Amino acid sequence: MEYRRLGRSGLNISKLALGTMNFGNPTDKAASFKIINAALDAGINIVDGADVYADGDSERIIGEALAENGKRKAVFVTSKVFLPTGEGPNDSGNSKHHILAACENSLKRLKTDWIDIYFLHRTDFRVPQEESLAAMDLLVQQGKVRYIGCSTHPPWRVVEAWWIADKHRYPKFICEQPPYNLLDRRVEHEIVPMCKAYDMGIISWSPLAQGVLAGRYQNANDIPHGSRGAFKAIYAERITQPGIEVAQKLAKRAEQKGCSLPQLAVAWVLHRPGVTASIIGPRTLAHLKDLLSAADLKLDDGDLAFCDQLVKPGVFVSDHFNTAGWRE
């Protein structure tokens, strides 16, 4: 496993991060434990979570697994705050009230004293960033959070946050976590250049384009029962016929290279300039074992040019920013 420096933090993280969105639903605890242990044995040292995954059950599984295997200190555990965790008017967003409360709840579920990287899951235009960053600063001072990051943020908000952090000596975002896959390359316009300019890492999510680049969909109008696309309308929106056609062409290239379609899709992300790591979110142990090989898959200039022909740089054929709340 290759390890890469995450922004200016000095952390060295594996170029594959274990995503945990499936833990608790649909992947049960026993299967999740096996995935976590196999990932750590393979050299993955970052486990990416969020307070809303499976209504908190995902974090509980992470906490129990690391308590059982005794590897908490060897693993970077992340979590995120922003999305609703209750029905009250203050149970969401990036207010100081919600950030502090959500962090305490995540720590309890994770059975840990600290979160290694705490992300603002989305930007909150209703709350001044001074308030959000002050809350994050307090958590860092208390030792409950070690580093902070942002996910799917507009570039101008990230730069504004850096200015505020400079002014008040608050902690700065060490990385951005955007959607990045062959079907949605819009991060290449501003987010990737911003991260390079400010020495921020990039931990990308959805390298398989929600399963489209794993070959799980054959018709955008016929979404299989039990698939991620059938789970929520916002997920179904990301499954497009042009995206499926790209996946079918990429599958033929993968066959020529002697690898699987998911391996090629993840490897493509790992070869993109500025990317520190890509999150893989396996549902099963078999999925994990297949995806692990992407870390060692080398793409040549011909492979990269082929992908550029399928979806040109900066272009998208599937909207993975449809939960961002800021990109039209």
Structure explained in plain terms:
By secondary structure, the protein is an alpha/beta fold. It is 38% helix and 14% strand. The protein has one domain: NADP-dependent oxidoreductase domain (TIM Barrel). The protein has 11 helices and 10 strands. The strands form 2 sheets. It has an 8-stranded parallel beta barrel with strand order 3-4-5-6-7-8-9-10, surrounded by 6 helices. The protein is globular and about 55 Å long. It starts with a strand and ends in an 18-residue tail after the last helix.
Keywords:
TIM Barrel; 10 strands; 38% helix; eight-stranded parallel β-barrel; 328 residues
How do the helices and strands line up, and which of them pair or pack?
Blueprint: E1 3-5, E2 12-14, E3 16-19, H1 29-41, E4 46-48, H2 57-69, E5 76-81, H3 96-110, E6 115-120, H4 129-141, E7 145-151, H5 155-168, E8 173-177, H6 191-197, E9 201-204, H7 233-236, H8 241-257, H9 261-270, E10 277-280, H10 285-292, H11 301-310
Helix pairs in contact: 1-2, 1-10, 2-3, 3-4, 8-9
How many DSSP-defined strands? 10
Shape: globular
Overall average pLDDT:
97
Task: State the fourth-level CATH superfamily.
Answer: NADP-dependent oxidoreductase domain
Kindly provide the radius of gyration, computed on alpha-carbon positions and rounded to a whole number of angstroms.
Answer: 19 Å
Question: What is the spatial order of strands in the main beta sheet?
Answer: 3-4-5-6-7-8-9-10
CATH topology assignment:
TIM Barrel
- Highest-level CATH class: Alpha Beta
Distance between the termini: 37 Å
Low-confidence stretches: none
In total, how many domains does the architecture comprise? Answer: 1
The largest sheet is: 8 strands, parallel, barrel
User: Fraction of residues in helices?
Assistant: 25-40%
Quote the beta fraction: 5-15%
| Protein structure class | alpha/beta
User: Which second-level CATH architecture applies?
Assistant: Alpha-Beta Barrel
